[in-house]
Amino acid sequence: MEKESNGKLKFTQEEWDNIGKYLVGNSQRFRENIIIPKSVGPVKIKTREEKLIEAGFDSCVFKSFMSCVLGYGLGAAIGLFSASVNPTITGADAKQQTAREVLRDMKNTTLGYAKNFAMIGAVFAAVECTIESYRGKSDWKNGTYAGAVTGGMIGLRAGIKAGMIGAAGFAAFSTVIDYYMRH
């Protein structure tokens, strides 16, 4: 700092730069995309690895895969229960089934249910995640739209009328379940 002849202080260009950096801050950022969770307690900044793992769990591929796996498990459980309750051979020429025939029938029924539930879960999750990504919102409409698309695709195998009924039914079911889960 220099003193002028009239008694005023004069700053050099370097000093003005230092004052500006002090008041405004430097141009270096500590970390990109800081995510601070809203919780009670100390704030912990997530590491890059934590953010990558979280992004992986939030991806449409992971959600679809998990829905497929969980749908397969649920379908297998429902199929096993259904096979144990429903008799497969009825009528006058029904003979006594062997244990091997009963187990084979239970396996076929269980696998059939498991595959169907896995397919429905994967399609619904993929469609819902795609719609949510496109809309940029997470609300009840995503599940309703995804239910309509999924139900329509499933029902379309039996014709246009069945596709429309399937779309309406699955959309209504998805809306009720979404409302129940959010409230």
Automatic annotation (TrEMBL):
The topology of this chain with respect to the membrane is: Multi-pass membrane protein
TM ranges are 162-181
Instruction: Give me the Gene Ontology terms describing cellular component.
Output: TIM22 mitochondrial import inner membrane insertion complex
Recorded GO molecular functions are: mitochondrion targeting sequence binding; protein transmembrane transporter activity
Keywords assigned by UniProt, alphabetized: Membrane, Mitochondrion, Mitochondrion inner membrane, Protein transport, Translocation, Transmembrane, Transmembrane helix, Transport
Any keyword Translocase?
no
- Principal cellular location given in the protein's record: mitochondrion
A Gene Ontology BP annotation from the UniProt entry? protein insertion into mitochondrial inner membrane
Q: Which InterPro entries match?
A: TIM22
Q: Where in the cell is it found?
A: Mitochondrion inner membrane
Q: What PANTHER family does the annotation carry?
A: MITOCHONDRIAL IMPORT INNER MEMBRANE TRANSLOCASE SUBUNIT TIM22
How is the subunit organization of this protein annotated in UniProt? Component of the TIM22 complex.
Report the function annotation for this chain: Essential core component of the TIM22 complex, a complex that mediates the import and insertion of multi-pass transmembrane proteins into the mitochondrial inner membrane. In the TIM22 complex, it constitutes the voltage-activated and signal-gated channel. Forms a twin-pore translocase that uses the membrane potential as external driving force in 2 voltage-dependent steps.
* Family designation: Belongs to the Tim17/Tim22/Tim23 family.
Q: What is this protein called?
A: Mitochondrial import inner membrane translocase subunit TIM22
Biological source species = Ladona fulva (Scarce chaser dragonfly)
